[in-house]
Design goal:
The complex is a heterodimer of chains A (139) and B (235). Chain A is an alpha+beta fold and 139 residues long. Chain A has helices at residues 4-30, 32-35, 41-46, 130-138, and strands at residues 55-61, 67-69, 72-78, 83-89, 101-110, 113-122. The longest helix of chain A is centred in the N-terminal third of the chain and has 27 residues, at 4-30. Chain A starts with a helix and ends with a helix. The chains are: A alpha+beta (139), B mainly alpha (235).
Chain lengths: 139, 235
């Protein structure tokens, strides 16, 4: 139905797309370390040696773990398998609260102690009006 | 095969339709804005800043959709050597870029009060920025190259490289740890967005789609007039 040229061009495009996708996949796969925005506490446990560079750690703020004394905030980041103690001095974002996602940027002191220079609140994908949230909480 | 795409017939539509699309756009946009800004509830966690989402998410969807269409049209145009497809792609692209920029800017405005930062180099945001760069490259290429054969090849090359980025944008939030939250709306499973917030989101998406259609019709109409003025009744 179509000419030989049309078929050839079609195959040509498919081949280009395949090889591009494959090479992009390989590049990203090898750069995975840098593509991820933050490490989880479990990732930190698996680190070969402690990273001297600035890193980001993300997870949930553990319930009842936020302690505020003068201008220093202490809390625990958990991924429900491992935990890391975080200390930070400065202003925290409005959405920073217990049981919610957080990303801390800073330096590891040791495997379970992290000194943050910046705190970002991570929002989850749930959107609902306050009344619905209350109704859910009562259940 | 593509007889229905004859410029003469299309010109009748593109020269008349914009008025009606404009009226429809204004109606749908007013309903969408009223729903999004006044009638929809505030969020339990982020309170009123959730309203930015009603602009941000539709804009991001439309810009992704338009880039995919541009790439698809360019590739089909290349395979079947149909120049009309390239003109449709060319006319679609500007509104895609506008919505891409809107998504980046509103995301930034939302990020400051919610995350505590204007910008983060996470996978979703960076890949969205790359998409904007591809849009810019695509549009600039059309302006630079006068030679028709050359411009078709170059724009096709840009879209074929750019299209690889689209699935990365979509799945970046699932594949890697990102600051950006994963998708709230899933076609196959239950959405994690309340129905009272879903409605304004869908109306706003329809409004933005109509706006893209309007800009597309006007742009495409101009392209057809250009061809007419050259004294060619075929592409």
């Amino acid at each position: 139905m179509y000419g030989r040229k049309v078929k050839l061009r079609f195959i040509f495009i498919i081949l280009i797309l395949l090889s591009l996708t494959l090479s992009v996949f390989l590049v990203i796969k090898s750069l995975e370390e840098n593509v991820i925005y933050f490490k989880s506490p479990s990732d930190v446990k698996l680190l070969g040696k402690l990273d001297k560079n600035q890193i980001r750690i993300g997870g949930m703020v553990k319930e009842n773990s936020i302690k505020i004394k003068s201008n220093e905030v202490n809390f625990i980041i958990t991924d429900f398998k491992n935990e890391i103690n975080v200390t930070y001095s400065g202003v925290v974002p409005n959405l920073f609260s217990e049981g919610k996602g957080v990303v801390a940027e800073g330096y590891l002191k040791d495997r379970s102690f992290f000194e943050a220079s910046k705190i970002l609140a991570k929002h989850d994908e749930n959107y609902m009006p306050p009344e619905v949230k209350e109704a859910l909480g009562e259940k | 095969m593509f007889k229905i795409f004859e410029p003469g017939k299309i010109f009748l539509i593109t020269s008349k339709a914009p008025k009606y699309v404009m009226i429809l756009f204004i109606i749908v946009l007013s309903i969408g804005l009223l729903e999004a800004l006044i009638f929809s509830p505030e969020d339990y966690k982020q309170s009123h800043s959730v309203r930015i989402m009603y602009v941000h998410v539709p804009a991001a969807w439309i810009s992704l959709g338009i880039f995919s269409s541009v790439a698809f049209l360019s590739l089909v145009g290349y395979i079947f050597k149909n120049k009309n497809f390239f003109l449709i792609a060319k006319s679609l692209a500007p509104s895609g870029l506008v919505f891409n920029i809107i998504a980046l800017v509103t995301g930034s405005i939302w990020g400051k009060p919610t995350w505590g930062t204007w910008w983060a180099w996470d996978a979703r945001i960076t890949s969205m920025l790359i998409l904007a760069l591809f849009y810019v490259m695509y549009l600039i290429a059309w302006r630079i190259y006068e030679d028709k054969e050359q411009v078709l090849k170059i724009t096709t090359t840009i879209t074929i490289i750019g299209i690889v980025n689209v699935p990365i944008i979509k799945y970046s939030v699932d594949w890697w740890n990102t600051l950006h939250q994963p998708a709230s709306i899933n076609i196959l499973s239950k959405s994690s967005i309340h129905s009272s917030m879903m409605f304004p989101l869908l109306v706003m998406t329809a409004a933005f789609a109509l706006f893209s259609l309007l800009i597309f019709l006007m742009k495409y109409n101009t392209e057809l007039i250009k061809i007419k003025n050259k004294g060619l009744d075929r592409l």
